[in-house]
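User: Sequence in, structure out. Go.
Assistant: Echoing your sequence, followed by the structure tokens.
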Amino acid sequence: MHQKIKVLFRHRSMEMGGVERVLLDLLENLPRDLFDITFFLTLNQGELRSDIPKDIKLITFQKGKEDMSTNKFLRTFQLIKRNLTLLFYRKNPKLLYKNIIRDNFDIEIAPTYSEFENILSSPLKSKKIAWFHTDVSYDPDRERVLNRINNLKKFDWVIFGSKQTRDVIKDLYHIEYPKSSVIYNSIKMDEIKKKSTEFPVNYDLHPVFSSMGRLHSRKNYHTLMNIHRKLLDEGFLHAVAVIGGGGEMENLKKQAAELKVEKTFLLLDTQTNPYPFIKNSDFFVLPSESESYPLTIGEVMGLNIPIVSTNVGGIPEMINHQEDGYLVEPDENSIYEGMKLFLTNPEIPAKIKNNTEKAIEKFDNQKIYNEVTEVFLSQYQQK
């Protein structure tokens, strides 16, 4: 029997998010006959931690907030102790590997930029691979961008989540990555369809535009709410249902009160299973200013919901405009025009809905797993 390739994935925590879902999918589907996989989770925290496959070795370093004391003072002490421990081991990576990880690996993986420096500081003579999903053109902090894209050059191989993600670095910063490939994120259509029927969702007002994403200013939900108010003022009755939590929640609640749309602009927060909320909506709108290759687009196509999406990042690699989705520019007027078109020309979303049946053929998961496997094998063979 051949020796398995030892692979270490490192990640901070398992709050609901796109990167976390991609990571879980890889952990579940990479071939066990080739790889011996270990997952190092810095904080045992987040809704998705229970979804980590049971047959891989899991190392959890520090307690998550869910497992800390409910006593305010004790909890504060636990958080301070946790932060000091993390700081100590970040500055002493050799001790982290000696005392906590306690193993050797052929390949180490940074699934997101927050793990770049952790993997690059590893004392192991491993091959180091980074995933990068971020559209850098929308980050105003040039120093932060340069730090990330220069760190990428130090890896043995880089996997970009979309062609646009790699191209925009070349266009804006004139940096290329000869040791890289573009591998799209997989989308689990059968599982999503099954989950979408797990419970009923009844909206008080139709038609409904659903949307899903972290509540971050870059996701443009404040703009979407202004558009919603404008369409209502023009007599176009509809609702918007936003699935997701995040730092903008309080600002959006305040804005909804000011615009008097609390009953029609629904802030549904994070949902462990968001798919029934999407399945029972009429349309889907993605108003983001920037994206890489959002899983949500493929998932919504799999549920046969017509999409209005901003034409950013890798989205045009997923949507054929006016065939299986409708692309608009990431500004208020363009998104408004796209939503109004769906509300006033029912034949357009009907055509898109019909075409989504064929569109989901674009997402071939086995091809994706094979491509990742090939990268790992080729890097191991170069050791």
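User: And one key feature?
Assistant: Residues 189-362 form a domain with the Rossmann fold fold (CATH 3.40.50.2000).
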